[in-house]
Amino acid sequence: MGKDNRHSEKRILEKTLDELYIKSRAPMKGFFVLVFFYLACTFSVSFVAKSQSSVNIKGIEIGVYTFAGVISSLANILAIFMTVYYGKKGFFTALSVLVLQLPMIFMGIFVRRTYTSIPGVFGNLVAILAIIAIFANNLRIEKYQTKLREQAVTDMLTGIPNRFACSELVMDFIKRGTPFAAVSVNLNGFKGINDTMGFDVGNAVLMEVASRWKKIADNGNSGTLDFICRLAGDEFAIVIRHYLTQDDILKTINLYADALNEKIVAQDYSISISASFGYAMFPDDAKDVNELFTYANIAMLKAKESADQKHVMRFSRDMMDNLHTAELEAKIRDAIENDTIYFNLQPQFDMNHKLRGFEALARMKDTDGSFISPGEFIPIAEETGIIDKIDSSVFNKSARFIGNLIKETGADIMLSINVSVKHMMKADFLDELTSILEESGIRPVNLEIEITESIMIESMEKAFECIESIKKMGIQIAIDDFGTGYSSLSYLNSFPANLLKIDKSFIDKMNSSDSSKQYVAAIISLGHIMGIDVISEGVEQEDQLDTLKEIGCDYVQGFIWGRPLPQEDARKVVLDSLEMA
Ligand code: C2E
Ligand code: CA
Ligand code: CA
Hints:
Elements: H1 2-20, H2 28-50, E1 54-57, E2 60-63, H3 68-110, H4 118-153, H5 163-176, E3 180-188, H6 190-197, H7 199-219, E4 225-232, E5 235-241, H8 246-258, E6 264-266, E7 269-271, E8 274-282, H9 289-305, E9 312-314, H10 317-337, E10 342-350, E11 355-365, E12 371-372, H11 374-383, H12 387-409, E13 414-418, H13 421-424, H14 429-440, E14 447-452, H15 453-458, H16 460-472, E15 476-482, H17 489-494, E16 499-502, H18 504-510, H19 514-529, E17 533-537, H20 542-550, E18 555-557, H21 567-580
Parallel strand pairs: 8-9, 11-13, 13-14, 14-15, 15-16, 16-17, 17-18
Antiparallel strand pairs: 1-2, 3-5, 3-8, 4-5, 6-7, 10-11, 10-18, 11-12
Helix pairs in contact: 1-5, 2-3, 3-4, 6-7, 12-14, 18-19
The chain binds ligand C2E and calcium ion (2 copies).
């Protein structure tokens, strides 16, 4: 099977490489046409030369024999064409005919004494020399091309196929729909070997690893058809075909892993090395070369990280999510560390468009300067327990800003802060509140803590105490995203909130169905019965505003009257509102 394996891969690679080189491959039909005309010219020369007849062209008598030179030159040109376009085949055909002609010409000169053939001898010799020169030159070019072709698909250090060979092969399998497993392989701790023992030892290790793996791929003991190549550094790839079950793939990979059990001796070192393997399957996991190897790589990294030292893993979708989460988490931690989390302020108005205050919303930028949505980073910060750092940062910065703005303008505005329940329940949360109020100079009545309804319900008992204490400090409480958490009436009745924030999803539906409108109206009435104000979030359209006025909503927060704004723009909103007053 190993031999079979090598053959099929070689064939595919050669085929693709041939396509890459501009090789003058003339069609065979042309060869036969050339040979036919060549022989026809060659044999007709002597007849034409001996001809006694003549032709009359425009009244001038021309002897047919004079055309012999033309035909002989034509034959020589055809011989050259054959050598140029049909390589060995063309060269030997032309050479045989030219050489065979020589005795016949010499016989004519020495036996029959037809001295008119003497120029023919020279023509013939010149043609022979010309085609030999052309053929020798072609051989040189071809040799060079073969070398180039080999280099293009071979990894210079280890002598096994390289990344290019691998992707060509894989693309071909994909084109044919041949199922295969793309395995990404990485040596464990290779960097350490390079750093401590030097590049020469590192190279020797790579060569030995490649040679052991190549043996497995070539001898076919794995029972599957494997192709091994080196992608870069200590990254290798194996393409496995002809398996029946996942077990077959695992068995094959284990064979490659076990090949490293024996220590590698390089210079004076005896080195233990192992590898991590991750794989993705075509066509089940992905249908594109890059995607397949990216997935295989993700699985390989998982295998490398895995606590239980699993050296091989298959790609699965949740690895992508985890990867994204881990990546984002790292970015959030960086942003917290470098203090680059900032805030926007979204204005809230009463129904007469009078400014109530602002909600501070966390903002974060990616390394490339693009904006990462809070909808993305807040849940991850929440899950990984770093949300309190974001809350505090936004809280501190926005309180300082609004505190100064109130001092400067005398405006009576609210600052609403989003606080995660996890954060709120921390032992030192009340101290944090006290110190921020002191530092910023904001009066407690101008500060509002927004708590998301759904989260609060989950941990109601404990949250309740906390909220009571906050309320006692004179700070306002808003229930965020109201309507999404199925609050019970009884809890709302005893809950010390002063503001209900109706979630955008209800505002969106409000004008398309009567029941949704009734629902929003019911929340507003309910709030009012309990002595709680109601604000509608995500108001974007004029007709939503009209309905909200009609059903007695107290405040609005939405793009219609104000998007989340940077500090300077929020300042202008405050100044404008004071001018109008
Ligand atoms: P949220 O507290 O419900 O904040 C309102 C969200 O609705 C904001 O999204 C705001 O930009 C958006 N919004 C307001 N009006 C409109 C509108 O008319 N149309 C549309 N399409 N959207 C509108 P943002 O800033 O993306 O925040 C998303 C969520 O992230 C917030 O929802 C909040 O739950 C959370 N969040 C933001 N900042 C913080 C923070 O500092 N701490 C915590 N714990 N959560 C935060
Ligand atoms: Ca909010
Ligand atoms: Ca909300």
